[in-house]
From TrEMBL:
The organism of origin for this protein: Alteromonas ponticola
Catalytic activity: a quinone + sn-glycerol 3-phosphate = dihydroxyacetone phosphate + a quinol
Gene Ontology MF terms: glycerol-3-phosphate dehydrogenase (quinone) activity
Highest taxon in the source lineage: Bacteria
Phylogenetic classification of the source organism: Bacteria, Pseudomonadati, Pseudomonadota, Gammaproteobacteria, Alteromonadales
Protein name as it appears in the record: Glycerol-3-phosphate dehydrogenase
Amino acid sequence: MTSTTPFVTDLLIIGGGINGAGIAADAAGRGLSVVLCEQGDLGSATSSSSSKLIHGGLRYLEQREFRLVYAALKEREVLLKKAPHIMRPLRFRLPHQPHLRPQWLIRLGLFIYDRLAKRNQLEPSRKIHCDASGPLSADIKTCFEYSDAWVDDARLVVLNALAARDKGASIRPRTTFLHADQQQQHWLAKIQSQHGKTETIRARAIVNAAGPWVMSTLHNVAPSDNAHSMRLVKGSHIVVPKLYSAEHAYILQHEDQRIVFVIPYENYFSLIGTTDVDFNGDPGDVQISDNEKKYLLSIVNRYFTTQTSIADIVHTFSGVRPLLEEENTSAQAVTRGYKLTLSGSTEEAVLMNVFGGKITTYRRLAEQAVNKLARYFPAATHAWTATVPLPGGSFDSKSALRSEYQQRFPWLADDLCGEYVCRYGRLCEQFLDDTSSMAALGEHFGHNLYQTEVDYLHDKEWAQTVEDILWRRTKKGLLFSAEQVNHLQHYLSTLMN
């Protein structure tokens, strides 16, 4: 089935990862009409496969990427205020290994890191002594501690898509971009829904933010521009039962000069990653290899007294990062910067391609992208995203919001109240305001996932499948049994019919 009348819009954005969603929100907030299409679920590829960190990138200082680190640290402070529900400050400990990096070098790096950051919200770095009561091997006597932040990466994408929709954007997940042809000042693009419906979009500008598919997408846009080649790098993570009880994370050095994070994850687990492996193939089929599992475990077992094996791994995930190609550079040393290219004129259709980037600097990338596009849209207003909270983020602190909800919804179980605050902030009011008891939350699918939340995710946040709900909107897939998954799947099928 094909729609014959074109849908007219200012921008057609291809790609519903963090960059596409961020650009959609920024542009829609400046008064531009926006259509965003994503071939899968929002944030279902690279953007939900990160280490879940908003950080400057301490290791990038060794590569002299001072500008990148400064920009990322500045954005870290902005995002902590924009999304207090899905972000939290996180302390990191770097165990000292004298044969890998001398103390003076680490001290210098942390001194620069602290100075590049404003530190108006986070504690400065310090040196600490390790003893036998800690989780580290006995030969590790010293750690260096510093601050960064944790984020729910998949929810960050969804919140930007919600912000875009609130400003009038049309968000189309599970909709594939087919091709586009230039018609003087406009593009005529074809997109296709998962149900086979083909639609024509008439857009003044196309933004190619397809992540690891950016080059293949570019081939379907005429005229194409292959000035910037991409390097695809696979990053894999493993999840194991928690290695220690404290709330800080670790950053582990390795003999190959790489670093690996160990991060407290979803109360009961430790998240370990990432690898950096050059990738060739379909980014949609990426999987962790046995060698990657062994690599990550070997590093962790070198540092921790609790020894972990492949049998202990409860979950894995991998993503393909589209990085700017650099000659004679190892996968781990390739820049995490980004490049925006723009072609077209006032008399021609406009094409923007987004190459590279990292989740920490997505908002800055989006703002710069729309600044460049705004010259073609005289009515576009000024940049706005630096000071406006993402949906659900209009509150001072999690503890204050939790106290407010404990008074407004005294029947709500305390642990569930805490989950809702951290996952939704004030958005949870959309499904709590009409309830008056735990029973009113409806069917319990397990592990504090209730029918009202599932209905909200389906109706308001584009969730259609079990995977959407259990692995991206929440992380409850780590806890659900096969029977519980099947039960939820059956319920979702009734919503879809």
